[in-house]
Design brief:
mainly alpha, Protein Binding, DinI Protein, Chain A, three-stranded parallel sheet
């Protein structure tokens, strides 16, 4: 009798997925993303681009400071009109630096979207493929930053299978 119950329980467990019970998988997308070589290349490229912008801004700032020092050094010898014109020129330089910084930030954000989109698509395609291979109906993002999964003892962890799919 005990054997019959064990067999019945085993059959019920193996037949449940076939009867339409959906499997749930989970993956820590944030953790996997930062491990991807493609993502690391994107971040290096963005950091190099940001360094260029920062160097140019620093150069512009040095020019502004030099002008301010010149104004201060010549304050006693320049006429009021000349001093106002120089202050106006320095204010314009300052405004140009601010505009440059905002434009640089926008350009970096655009570049990030342009470069990261193919990486995210590659990751999503790998997750989709692994979920299909493992007959998983739902995949939850277990990244802490997302707060989607607060308990992950059950379900199917797809991390290693997706890494294989990505060639990592």
């Amino acid at each position: 009798m005990k054997n019959a119950l064990k067999v019945l329980a085993l059959v019920a467990m193996t037949a449940a997925p076939a009867l339409g019970q959906s499997l749930v998988g989970h993956i820590n997308v944030d953790s996997l993303l930062v491990e991807m070589p493609d993502y690391k290349k994107v971040m290096e490229s963005l950091q190099a681009e940001q360094a260029k912008f920062e160097a140019e801004a620093k150069e512009m700032q040095a020019e502004l400071e030099k002008g301010a020092q010149t104004l201060q050094a010549n304050a006693g010898t320049w006429t009021e009109l000349r001093q106002r014109q120089e202050q106006q020129r320095l204010q314009e330089m300052y405004n140009n630096i601010q505009e440059y910084m905002q434009s640089a930030q926008q350009e970096l954000q655009g570049k990030e979207i342009e470069l990261i989109t193919p990486v995210l698509e590659k990751l999503q395609n790998a997750i989709d493929a692994v979920a299909a291979e493992k007959n998983v109906a739902y995949v939850l993002d277990a990244s802490q930053s997302k707060g989607m999964v607060i308990y992950s003892k059950g379900g199917l962890n797809l991390m290693s299978a997706v890494k294989v799919k990505l060639g990592m």
